[in-house]
Hints:
Elements: H1 6-26, H2 36-58, H3 61-89, H4 95-111, H5 138-155, H6 163-188, H7 202-209, H8 224-233, H9 238-255, H10 269-285, H11 292-318
Helix pairs in contact: 1-2, 1-10, 2-5, 2-7, 2-9, 3-4, 3-10, 3-11, 6-7, 7-9, 8-9, 10-11
Amino acid sequence: MVKNNFDVLRIFLAVLVFYFHIGIETQNEYLMYVPGGLAVHCFFVISGYLIVKSYLKRKSLSTYVKSRFLRIYPLYFIVITTAFIFGYFHYSGSFIDDINNGAGKYLASNYVFANFLHPTLPGLFENNFQPFVNAALWTIKIEVMFYICVPIIYGVLNKKLDNKKLTILLGLVSICCFYTVQYFIEYHGLPASINRQLPSMLVFFMLGAYWNFAEPKFLRLWHLLILIPIVFFLQSWFVIYAFAVSFIVYVIVFKLKPIAVSKRIGDISYGIYIWHFPILQTLIMYGFFKNIYQGTAIATVLVFSFAMISWHFIESKLVVRH
C-alpha cells in the first residue's frame, strides 16, 4: 500500500520542468510562466530527505555508492551518447572533424557531469532559440555533488556534531553563502547563475534531510493555502521561500491522500527529466513547434514513451533493493 506521494510528485515536478522548457525554447508567453525553478527546488528537498535516509539506512559506503551510481549514471550515459550519435548524423563533415570540432569535448565534459563546459554539438540545434543539447543537466551535477557530500556529512562530520545539529548548521551555512554570493552578484557583477549551485542550493537538501531527524508534523493540508502564495510572491525573501518550498513538499508527500502510480507506468520522473530537452530541441529543429499545440502533444507522447521504456528496460533492472 502506498504511504506517501513521492512518486507522483516527482513525475508532476518533472512534467513542470518539461513544459517550462517548452515555454522558454519556443518563447510561448503562457508556458514560460510554468514554475520550473520551483519544481527544481522541490526536487532538491525530496533528494535531501530520500538520499540521507538511504545512506543512514544502508550504513555501507560501497552499497550507497553502488545504488547512487546505478540509479543515475547508466541512463545518463545513454542519453549523452544518443545525443552524440544523433548529432554526428546531422554533421556534414567526417567523424574525426566532428570530434575535433567540439563533439569530443561534449562527450568528455558531459560524461563527468560538467555539461556547463561544453553544452553544444557542432551543427546541431544552431537555429533553435538556444543551441544547447540538454540544458536540464545542470541540476544532475548538483545532485551528484550532494550525493558525494552525504557520506562526508553523515559519516565523518557527524563525529563532532549529532546529525540533527549538523543538518541545521549546514543549512545555516548555505543560507549565509547564498546572501554573500548575492551581494557579489549585485555589486561586483558576478554571473547570477553562481547562486544556483552549491553551496547556496544546499539549504533545500538540508531542509529535506532534516525530516529524518525531526518531521514538521504540525503542518496540515490547509497550510497549502498559505504556502503556495508565499513561494510565488515572496521568492526574493530567500529563507522564507526555501522553508515554504520544503513545507509544500512535506504536505503533499505526507498529508495528502496517497496517490499510487501504476506499475505499468513506473517511476518515470528521471526519464522525463533527462530525455525531455533533447527531444524538445529535435522537434523544434524539424519545425513541429510551428503549431504549439501540435508540438506540445507530440513532445509529450515522445517524452513519456522514452521515459517509460527507460524505466522498464533500463532503470528498473538496475535498482539496488534491500
